[in-house]
Fold this sequence. Notes:
By secondary structure, this protein is α+β, with helices and mostly antiparallel strands. It is built from five helices and 20 strands. It has helices at 2-44, 61-64, 305-324, 328-338, 359-364, and strands spanning 72-75, 83-84, 92-94, 99-104, 131-136, 144-154, 157-162, 177-182, 187-189, 195-197, 201-206, 214-215, 223-224, 236-240, 248-254, 271-280, 289-291, 295-302, 340-345, 351-358. A nine-stranded mixed sheet has the order 1-4-16-6-14-17-18-20-19. A five-stranded mixed sheet has the order 3-5-15-11-13, with no helix packed on it. Helix 3 packs across helix 4. It is extended.
Amino acid sequence: KANKARERDRTKRNRAQHYKEKTKHTQKRDRTKRNRAKHSQEKAAPQKNKPKRSKIPTFHPQIKKGLPKPTMNLIPKTRPTYTFSKHNSPIHQAAPQDLLCFETYDCFTNRLLPPDATYENTPFLPGNPLTGPVFISGANPGDVLKIDIQKITPGPTGIVVVGPKSGCLREYFPERKILRIPVNDKEIQFTPQVRLPLRPMIGTIGVAPAGEAIPSVTPSSHGGNMDCTKITEGSTLYLPVFTPGALLSMGDVHAAMGDGEVEDCGLEIEARVTVCVDIIHTLKIDWPLLETEDAWISIASRDTMDEAWQAADRQMFDFLTNQVGIDPYEAGMLLTLTGNLAFCQTVNPKLTARMEFPKTVTKQYGFYTLTGQKTESIRFDTGPCTQAPQKNSTRERSND
């Protein structure tokens, strides 16, 4: 009798346990059904235009160190300047590792976008309109400003122009012709039959020079209108700092452009450019240096193309010997074996050339980054931009 009683109790416990597990399974199944039904209803319902928050990834270096998250600010294009000058009043102040979203006009200040606009009935301002300048806290003369280009978002319409006063083939264009080209997030519809890949790049970007103001159309050691097709998403531009705060400005974005800009014009377009800025105190350079995924690039602008390409070659030689630590004889041999020379633009007041050197070689010498550490490039899910607070300027910007 005792054995039967124990067996009966054990059976009751097993049944109770089975019922309990079955109830849990039923509850989970019902919950899954409710979630699926709710998801189907939300998917079928019309989407509301809710503003999305800017997303900053958790792998940002500030978050790793336990510091406050970096800020993302919109730098508006409401007050364009037309020179790089230490006398231009900054419209925003940023800290190192801040994310900045620059709104930019096209090189015509968007004045040719209306269908009825022509060169004859449209007044133009001198030079490329620049958004900025932005004062970078902690940047002083002798430092290097690091500009990590995160994202370039072009507008919906680009402008290309040829005529009797532009480019190498001007004698073939007795009349000026303007073409307005639709642009989407993947391609450019040049004609109904011809489509081109979207390759956005920044034509004009730079800091304030130490001396007199430099027009926005003129490139030099401060950066400026270099029109380098490699200054695009994923690349990092290093510029020498000549004045306190660096005073960073940019504009003249192209949705597409060939090396050389031989007919005086890329696909000129308004855009939003998101960058992350930082300061390097230990690096000393006197000219723009560009880093891409697979190459180091020196950029030089001079009065003639012969002077420009020779300066770019010498700048890369200095970089290889002083920064990478390569023997001068080996550096010269490697330049002629692996270096690639290219023309950036041939139409501005100063002409620009670049020398590209592969990272596969510098890595074999133990050189990975300008900071001397082997690190992976950081990229952000930038999200939408937010309005940046503006300071009331007490000085008028210089437009000379």
